[in-house]
Each structure stands twice: as structure tokens, then as C-alpha cells.
Amino acid sequence: MNYIHRFRDVFIIILFLLGVPTSQHRFMIHPPPMGGELNKYTTRNYDLDVPMTQWPGDFPCKGALEKGVGQPVLSYKPGKTYQMKMQAQGANHDGGSCQISLSFDKGGSWKVIKSILGNCPRNPAIDFDATSFTIPHDTPEGEAYFAWTWFNNEGNREMYMNCAHITVANTATKRSYHPEF
User: Fold this and answer.
1) Which domains are delineated in the chain?
2) In the chain, helix, strand, coil percent, each to 5?
3) Which residues of 24-54 are buried (b: 16+ CB within 10 A; e: fewer)?
4) 3-state class (DSSP) for residue 5
5) Residues paired with 164 in a beta bridge
6) What is the pLDDT of residues 15-30, one digit of tens each?
7) What residue intervals traverse the membrane (predicted)?
8) Are β-strands 96-103 and 74-76 bridged in parallel, bridged antiparallel, or unpaired?
9) What is the Cα 115 distance to its own chain's centre?
10) Which of 54, 77, 104, 107 is the most exposed place for a label (fewest CB within 10 A)?
């Protein structure tokens, strides 16, 4: 009788494991995030698609600021519109809400430049999605961190965050950093 119970328990565990989705979720691919496969300036982080789990270790930027931010990967101009792209692998959590933010003080504070309340990503059933954002006209010039955060809609309440090291450059007029941004 003991063998039957053990077999049943092992069988249930195997069925459970086969039915559980992988830990792969959404993550930013453009601009190339710190630790991302396409960012040649930072060490690869294979957990960019995993929700943040440790406070404060994962915040901000999945701990990338402590591991080294490398060189800026892109330059943006104030007043211009760009695309941020994300990739999905596995659980889509029926979308959720996203924000795009900038930090000019090494992640000490963040200024949200776009919020998408619900329906983010727009089509959770596809592998790639993009959203446009505009760098505000009054954004100061200099190096910054670009952040994409995602709060899922379905399942466990999870937060995801990927960051990219960028430059804001305006060749027409120079702006310096000011905390009021």
C-alpha cells in the first residue's frame, strides 16, 4: 500500500509541474536593457523576465545599478517620439499596466513620462509588442536611466522592471540637470 501512495504522490507532482507555466514573462528589448542580450556594455542577466522578488535588492532595475550600467545605449532628443519594445516568453498574465520613467539621479528618483493603465501590453497573446513614448520638451540633457515597469493583470501580483542607460541630447539648446524636472 505504501508504494501506491508514493506512486500517486509522484504522479501528482509530475502533473503539477507539467501544468505550471514557465517563469518567463515580459521584458524590455528596446532600448537594450542593462543585462539584456543586445546590450554589449553590461554583463548578461538571464532573469530580466522574472518578477522582482527582493526589496530593495531588485529595485530599481533588477539590481543592475550595482552590477554596472555600462555606456549609454541610445540617445534621445526632447520633444521626439520613440518606440519601446518588449518581448514575451510564456505567461502573459492577461496584460496589465505599464509605465515608462526616467531617472537623472542614478535611480534615486523617477519621473514617469508615460502610463498605460490596463491593456499593456496591447496584445498579450503575441510574442513582441511596442508602445510609443515622447521625451518631454523640458527633459534635461545628460545621461539618464530609462525604465519600463509592468504590473500584471492576472495571477500573482507581480512587478517587473527593466532599465537602459541612455543619453538625452538636444543639439539645439543645452539643458543642465535640475531636480525640478
Assistant:
1) 28-168 (2.70.50.70)
2) 15, 30, 55
3) ebbbbbbbbbbbbeebeebeebeebbbbbee
4) helix
5) 146
6) 334 444 333 467 899 9
7) none
8) unpaired
9) 14
10) 54
The CA distances from residue 112 to 48, 69, 95, 98, in Å, are 21, 20, 20, 10
Look up cell 556594455; give the residue: 41
Over the stretch 41-88, which tens digit does the pLDDT of each residue have?
A: 998 988 888 888 877 778 899 888 888 889 999 999 999 999 999 887
Is 136 in contact with 113 (CB distance < 8 Å)?
A: yes
* Model pTM score: 0.76
Given this model, what pLDDT does residue 65 score?
87
In degrees and rounded to multiples of 5, residue 170 shows phi and psi of: -125, 105
Give the position of cell 554589449. Answer: 40
